[in-house]
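Dear all,

This email documents one entry for the complex benchmark we are building for the journal club exercise. For each entry we list the sequence lines for every component of the assembly. Then comes the predicted three-dimensional structure of the complex as a token string, followed by one or two observations. Please use this as the template for your own entries, and keep the labels exactly as they appear.
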Amino acid sequence: MERHKIAALIHSETPVDTVMIKGWVRTRRDAKSFSFIEINDGSCLGNIQVIADATLPEYDQVRKLTTGSAVHVSGALVASQGGGQRWEVQASAITIISLAPESYPLQKKRHSDEYLRSMAHLRPRTNKYGAAFRIRSELSYAVHQFFRERGFRYIHTPIITGSDCEGAGELFRITTLDLMNVPIRDRAVDYEKDFFATEANLTVSGQLSVEMFALSLGDVYTFGPTFRAENSNTRRHASEFWMIEPEMAFCDLAGNMDLGEDFIKAAVSFIMDNCQEDLNLFARFVDKTLMATLENITTSEFERLPYREAVAILERAKKKFEYPVSFGSDLQTEHERYLTEKHFKKPVIVYDYPKTIKPFYMRMNDDNETVAAMDVLVPSIGELIGGSQREERLEVLEERMDEMGLEKEPYWWYLESRRYGSVEHSGFGLGFERLLMLITGIRNIRDVIPFPRTPGSIDF
Ligand code: 4AD
Ligand code: MG
């Protein structure tokens, strides 16, 4: 007989004569002639209560069950006598799969996020992290559903690349060279002797690759891990994170903003509709304002304003910022949060940024000073999306690369796409973990990734 998932049993419409469950013991309480065992199998937030009568032949063993032990229970799903749950399992047989020692580190009390980070291998067994990672799974599905319904094709872009898409130099190098005996030529590392016969690194973005597919298949997206060696230890930066990157041919910046806004709204709605029970945990215990924030996101029209106006608002603000702003400065989290939380009180799309603070591939505006960039900012997170219309004019693109001192040779194929049937096109990147933080109210990116990687930390 196949095992029943607790998620299905607790929503059963009728009693079930024979059920079989396998899971982990959350608690055991003993009465005079029977024991209550709360079992969780990870399929949902709820546990199922098992009643083990003293008449069971293995009852001696049952009385030894500890929190964290794995068990196999056969029995009947019956209406619960006690309050608090609709159904319970009246056990006819209980097998201990493995008994956890009393030292099991996740006891009933609530543990801090910091403590649980040091237990990343066990934390998915807690209510909060179980819920977070079920939501993460559902959200990945929602991403594919959203794009598929709109006719976008899913492209697998490479993880190992030779180029630096963002030009920020935050690359993790890949090499098989012997670090104790690095080959040198002309007083530099001789990468011709390396595995790929040239420099190689982990990708910071799939954009350059996915653009080639937009210029072939039309509407495409990539969704995969990206890597950044930025040494910033903040609550919203990870060294390995997942990015969703749609790219659309024959699409300008306004169309790009529409897609970003639609996507965020659809993703939030999907989780509100499909993960109510898990989401409720976050609304009750993690962030009391969560539901209001999510309602606000799904119902309000995102504010759209040029960078120049955003800066003017920030300059006029009564608030004292740690980093002063003026035209040409990058917006910091404190500015992004001021715009979304204090000024507009809803998500904001800032566009037309100064060219000096944006990468080479963004389309130059007629003012020759700003580029067709857009960032989507949301309450409590700040930047959730970074995107742009792409420079499709070969001469302008080359001029821009010269201006920024970029070597053109490694990008020869990218430039060639502007030679053969170049068209207007746009896209963006959305940080998947930041979206999860927004949806769950979890404040630290380390707590929405199964095994987080951050500067100085690669345990597990
Ligand atoms: O703004 P970014 O750097 O944009 C790009 O990489 C473009 N090439 C994307 C594109 O147009 N296809 O990064 C996009 C998003 C950010 O808005 C942020 O949500 C997330 O990726 N992100 C990070 N998330 C977690 N940890 C980090 N270190 C992140 N860096 C960026
Ligand atoms: Mg950005």
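Observations: The first helix runs from residue 6 to 9. The first strand starts at residue 16 and ends at 30.
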